[in-house]
Each structure stands twice: as C-alpha cells, then as structure tokens.
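Lab manual, section 2.4: Encoding a predicted structure.

Procedure: take the sequence of the chain (161 residues), apply the prediction step described in section 2.3, and record the output as structure tokens. A sample record is shown.
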Amino acid sequence: MTQICRGRWTHEHAGELTVFLIGMRINRFRRPDAWGPVLAAMGPMLAELSQDPESGFLGYEMSLGRRGPVLTQYWRSTEQLYAYAGDREAAHRPAWSAFNKRARRVPGAVGIWHETYQVAKAESMYVDLPPTGLAKATSGRPVSARLDQARTRLSPVTSAS
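Recorded output:
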C-alpha cells in the first residue's frame, strides 16, 4: 500500500514548468480494434519517459473519465515536451502514425486531445494523501504557518517558497 503523507502538504519547485493534459475518448465502444491500440500505446511511452531523466519528463497522474483516460503530465519545459513528441527514435512517433492510419480506417471511433500549459505560478494543497500530482512530480513539503493560505502558496514557480 502507498504511504499516506499525514497532514497538509504542498509542492515545491523552482524553475520552468509545463503541464500537459492528454486524453482519449472512446466514441464507439464496439470498436475496440480502433481504440484498444490507442489505449495500449500510452504505457510504453510513459515507461520510456520515466526511465530517461534527461527527457524533461517529471511525472504524471492518470484518471479515468466516462469515455476514456486522461493523463496529466509534468515537464521541465515545453521545448522538452515537443522534442519528445517529434523524436523519430522515441515511442511517440510510431504510435501517432499508427493512430492516424486507424483513424482513417474507422473514422470517429476514437478521439484524442491534448492541452499544453506553461506555468508561471502554481499553488497546491494535499491533505492525508500519498504523494500526488505536482508534489509527486516535483517534491512535497509540509504546509507551514507561513504557507497556510492558498494566496501565499501561489508563488512564481521560479522561486521555491
């Protein structure tokens, strides 16, 4: 069982930060031949990124929506995210090509989306949870009296609070 960090925690991070949301939506449940490979492709990419500290990948959280998974990924920089996406030697490019081929064969069976955010300020609060989210991807620290309010935790990511 994952260790729960008792009490109130926040994240601590200095430097650039990019948050990347990516998800898939199953539009036709009866076409697992179209959406199954999309679902299966993410695991190897996450493993590849997690094993390469130079990639700029800091970590991720996965959740499951009504029609498919959503990943929140944390990156050191947008440039490193884009470098991975365009790397012909990495797992992403073949997965993207395969998705495009399947999408032409079974149009509309599965959708994908992503959003990229360059973070100038970030605030977080975690209470009685295992390391989660931004605190898991960067580092966590207990909330002190000085960081008791959200507005004091919302600081530029370029300075460790």
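Check your result against the sample. DSSP finds five helices and nine strands in the chain.
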